């Protein structure tokens, strides 16, 4: 079966005021939440997002990957660390598809070339907060691809991963706010979810995937987790001001 993989790769950090978001790290940058709503870039150091291309096609696989690269961070070790995380995710993805294609050919089960495609977009890039969305397309036979998201959250000052719980370590009810938002949509739009989705939903997991986009926290679920494939990746955009 094919698989559409849309990975949200997020480097996000939000400050320690009301609404309260903070990173429990002595090296983390503090950003006032209002800077998320502002279009002004307050970075003291200049950095940019570029990319490198990996593209080839043979008798078993078609690869077309555009891999994001961070350039210009003051701390080069942090820059290398973040880029290595990104590259490892991308190359592991390609390697997995190549291995599956080789195995299918060995078993005479390869009817069409497999595909490994990667694109990305930037959803937030200012004030040492960076959000990238990496969209992977993986085809390994079958009628269509599948989709799922995976988040990587990184503090650009330290290169450390930031999980959803780290954003709200002083806000114990953040899970309830998010869960209520999701259940509300399930109740209002039951045809877009599995039967009894609202009552069967146990809530977000400890390391729930998320990213920051403008003034919203976006949490999401992979296809088949809470809804049929036809609904794709289910995203929930929750205004940051909801966490006051």
From TrEMBL:
<dbReference type="InterPro" id="IPR021729">
    <property type="entry name" value="DUF3298"/>
</dbReference>
<dbReference type="Pfam" id="PF11738">
    <property type="entry name" value="DUF3298"/>
</dbReference>
<protein>
    <recommendedName>
        <fullName>DUF3298/DUF4163 domain-containing protein</fullName>
    </recommendedName>
</protein>
<dbReference type="Pfam" id="PF13739">
    <property type="entry name" value="PdaC"/>
</dbReference>
<feature type="domain" description="DUF3298">
    <location>
        <begin position="165"/>
        <end position="240"/>
    </location>
</feature>
<feature type="signal peptide">
    <location>
        <begin position="1"/>
        <end position="22"/>
    </location>
</feature>
<dbReference type="InterPro" id="IPR037126">
    <property type="entry name" value="PdaC/RsiV-like_sf"/>
</dbReference>
<feature type="domain" description="Deacetylase PdaC">
    <location>
        <begin position="55"/>
        <end position="146"/>
    </location>
</feature>
<dbReference type="InterPro" id="IPR025303">
    <property type="entry name" value="PdaC"/>
</dbReference>
<keyword id="KW-0732">Signal</keyword>
């Amino acid at each position: 079966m094919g698989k559409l993989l849309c990975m949200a790769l997020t480097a996000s950090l939000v400050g320690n005021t009301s609404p309260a978001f903070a990173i429990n790290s002595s090296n983390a940058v503090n950003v006032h939440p209002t800077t998320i709503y502002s279009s002004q870039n307050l970075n003291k150091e200049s950095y940019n997002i570029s990319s490198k291309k990996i593209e080839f096609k043979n008798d078993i696989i078609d690869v077309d990957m555009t891999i994001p690269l961070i350039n210009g961070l003051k701390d080069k070790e942090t820059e290398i660390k973040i880029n290595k995380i990104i590259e490892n995710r991308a190359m592991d993805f390609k390697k997995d598809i190549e291995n599956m294609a080789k195995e299918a050919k060995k078993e005479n089960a390869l009817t069409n070339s497999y595909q490994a495609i990667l694109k990305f977009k930037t959803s937030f890039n200012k004030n040492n907060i960076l959000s990238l969305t990496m969209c992977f397309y993986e085809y390994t036979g079958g009628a269509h691809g599948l989709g799922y998201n995976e988040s990587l959250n990184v503090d650009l000052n330290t290169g450390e991963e930031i999980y959803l719980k780290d954003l709200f370590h002083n806000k114990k009810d953040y899970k309830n706010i998010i869960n209520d938002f999701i259940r509300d949509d399930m109740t209002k739009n039951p045809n877009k979810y599995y039967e009894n989705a609202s009552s069967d939903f146990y809530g977000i997991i400890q390391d729930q995937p998320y990213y920051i986009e403008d003034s919203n926290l976006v949490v999401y679920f992979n296809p088949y987790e809470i809804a049929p494939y036809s609904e794709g990746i289910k995203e929930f955009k929750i205004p940051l001001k909801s966490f006051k």
